[in-house]
Amino acid sequence: MSDQPAGQPSGAPELSGPQAEVAETTSQADAETAAALVGRPSTPRPYGGYFDHVADALARAFPELSKAVERTVVDRGELTLHVRREQLGGIAQQLRDAEELRFELLSSLSGVHYPMDAGRELHVVYELTSMTHNRRVRLEVAAPDADPHIPSVVRVWPTADFQERETWDLFGVVFDGHPALTRIMMPDDWPGHPQRKDYPLGGIPVEYKGASVPPPEERRQYA
Length: 223
Known about the structure:
By secondary structure, this protein is an alpha/beta fold.
């Protein structure tokens, strides 16, 4: 399913010189971010707006909600449920199918890498939209670098197909149950996952296999 075994290093070359200095500065910022993530409690009720209705409706549809959600955060006008990865499939199914919820559309799925969030380095964020009720909610799921597996939600939201492939390609998250988890941005034999924060910033030679770049005077004009 993937071209890199789970738990293996990202495959990126080691940093040196100016790149290492940039990485050290980035690591300091990551440490502050990770500390904020670990210590952040749930937002107290009431959440305001339709957020309380969504939370109550999900609790009715998914009775084990208190065990499945690590914390609930309302910030900058967004409701985010931090879901345990082993419970993602069940919660996703109810968010889509429950009459009071009807989050039919997965608008976006993206990865985030927090190297200093020990045991939770890889995060996946799901932006959901209810076309029926004109509402939005976010899910966030974390996995460790040593076991970067998260259940696929393609069965629930088909739009996750290419987005999960992109997140695997660029971050190394393995989506269990995906029908064809292959690279989508980088060549199949590319080492590592380029949007991870332990990947070098520039200086990577680019190869165009089986293609040629014509001289400027022969290229298509868009004027």
